[in-house]
């Protein structure tokens, strides 16, 4: 090892080009020069011509142009992040035909002239995030036939004109988040982005998604539209995205989910709609999402769940409906979901749980009904939940626990009933819960604990009866 090392050092000395002051950079000829944080105001002109990498991040460089780069024709990596370059003119990089990675982030750039990146046939990654770019002129990214990664986040772009991203045959990721985009022109992404897998448009000011916007993106897997101001999604907006797995529409201003909105998304696994203003979900809105595993509708203004709303979702595992205004249920609204494991209905206005509400949920493990207005639980409501382990009914208005309410829950481990108005627990109410470990009945109005109330709970580890009005505990 030591011998090899000595040989390498010897070679480095031999290979070192003559008369190279190296401007404080640490260089390996034919390889890389590392010159971050050196206070350079210009691109140094005294480094080995043979280098393939030049890292100049966090200097004070204001100008980059063709003559200044002409010396380093073998560069494959050029890092100019964190400088003070304001403008990239046409042909700046045309003497760097081998360039694969170009980083121009955090450099105060306001303008990129069309042609700036032309004649970079091998460029794979172009990083321009965190600048002050307001506009992308058509043709700016033309001829980047090998480009796979294009990062334009954290700029001030307002419009995506049609043609902007035409003809990027290898592009896999396009990041446009944290800009000020209000408008996406028709065809902006439509003309030949055959490899695009990820498109991030989050944290912008988009108000409408027109039909056809995401047409012709045969490989798109993830589409981020969260944190915009989307009010309207036109029919067909997401049509023809055969590979889409994740669609994030969180934190927008959507009020209605029309039927057909998510049609033709055969691979969709995750659909995020939390933090909108949805009051209505039309029947069939989620129809035919055969691969959907996770649907988040929490923090909306939904008042009613119509039956058949969640029909035909054979793979759905988690359904979040918390923090809505659901008062009414229709029998069967959340029934028949063979893979559902988690159902969160907390923080709603539900008053009655009718029998049949949770029918045919053979895999349900967690059911959250806390912070509602539940007064009545009809018998048999929880009767067909063979896998249920957690049942949260706390912070409701339950007055009586009838016998039979929790029958047939062979896996239940945790039952939360605290902060209700329970005065009565009927005999046998907890009689068939062989796996119950935790039972919280605190903050109720229980006065009597009848003998046999907690009989037959072989796994019970923790029972909370604090803050009640218990005056009598019967023997046994
Ligand atoms: C650039 O690379 C080529 C091919 O490896 C080599 O022949 C040429 O000498 C290099 N140019 C410089 C200036 O080092
Ligand atoms: C960025 O450019 C603006 C003018 O466009 C200038 O006022 C500001 O000082 C520059 N910031 C840096 C860090 O160079
Ligand atoms: C670059 O793209 C433009 C416009 O798409 C085209 O006219 C031109 O022929 C291309 N040049 C090269 C070298 O591919
Ligand atoms: C609270 C409430 O509206 N519950 C309803 C649930 O669904 C059944 C059947 O449609 C109604 O009878 C309940 O009134």
Automatic annotation (TrEMBL):
One Pfam family from the record: LRR_4
Signal sequence segment: 1-23
SUPFAM superfamilies given in the database record: L domain-like (SSF52058), RNI-like (SSF52047)
Keywords from the UniProt entry: Glycoprotein, Leucine-rich repeat, Repeat, Signal
Protein's UniProt name: Insulin-like growth factor-binding protein complex acid labile subunit
Source species: Branchiostoma belcheri (Amphioxus)
Gene symbol of the encoding locus: LOC109472522
């Amino acid at each position: 090892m030591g011998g090899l090392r000595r040989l390498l050092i010897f070679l480095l000395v031999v290979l070192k080009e003559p008369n190279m002051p190296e401007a404080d950079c640490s260089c390996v000829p034919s390889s890389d020069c590392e010159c971050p944080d050196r206070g350079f105001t210009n691109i140094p002109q005294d480094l080995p011509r043979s280098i393939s990498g030049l890292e100049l991040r966090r200097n004070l460089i204001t100008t980059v142009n063709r003559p200044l780069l002409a010396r380093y024709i073998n560069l494959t990596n050029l890092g100019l992040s964190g400088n003070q370059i304001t403008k990239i003119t046409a042909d700046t990089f045309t003497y760097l035909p081998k360039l694969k990675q170009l980083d121009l982030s955090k450099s105060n750039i306001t303008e990129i002239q069309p042609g700036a990146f032309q004649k970079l046939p091998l460029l794979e990654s172009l990083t321009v995030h965190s600048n002050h770019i307001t506009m992308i002129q058509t043709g700016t990214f033309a001829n980047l036939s090998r480009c796979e990664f294009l990062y334009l986040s954290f700029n001030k772009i307002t419009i995506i004109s049609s043609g902007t991203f035409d003809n990027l045959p290898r592009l896999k990721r396009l990041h446009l988040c944290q800009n000020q985009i209000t408008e996406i022109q028709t065809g902006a992404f439509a003309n030949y982005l055959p490899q695009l897998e990820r498109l991030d448009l989050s944290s912008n000011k988009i108000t409408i998604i027109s039909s056809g916007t995401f047409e012709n993106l045969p490989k798109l897997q993830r589409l981020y539209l969260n944190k915009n101001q989307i009010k309207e999604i036109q029919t067909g907006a997401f049509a023809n995205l055969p590979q889409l797995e994740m669609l994030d529409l969180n934190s927008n201003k959507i009020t209605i989910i029309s039927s057909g909105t998510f049609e033709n998304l055969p691979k969709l696994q995750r659909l995020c709609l939390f933090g909108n203003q949805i009051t209505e979900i039309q029947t069939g809105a989620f129809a035919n999402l055969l691969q959907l595993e996770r649907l988040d509708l929490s923090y909306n203004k939904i008042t009613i769940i119509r039956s058949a709303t969640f029909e035909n979702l054979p793979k759905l595992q988690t359904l979040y409906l918390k923090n809505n205004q659901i008062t009414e249920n229709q029998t069967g609204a959340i029934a028949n979901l063979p893979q559902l494991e988690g159902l969160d209905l907390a923080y709603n206005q539900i008053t009655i749980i009718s029998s049949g509400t949770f029918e045919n949920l053979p895999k349900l493990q967690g059911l959250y009904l806390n912070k509602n207005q539940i007064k009545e639980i009809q018998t048999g409501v929880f009767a067909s939940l063979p896998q249920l382990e957690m049942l949260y009914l706390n912070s409701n208005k339950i007055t009586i626990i009838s016998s039979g309410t929790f029958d047939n829950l062979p896996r239940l481990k945790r039952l939360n009933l605290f902060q209700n108005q329970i005065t009565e627990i009927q005999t046998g109410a907890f009689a068939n819960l062989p796996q119950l470990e935790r039972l919280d009945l605190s903050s109720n109005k229980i006065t009597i604990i009848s003998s046999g109330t907690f009989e037959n709970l072989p796994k019970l580890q923790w029972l909370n009866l604090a803050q009640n009005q218990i005056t009598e505990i019967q023997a046994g």
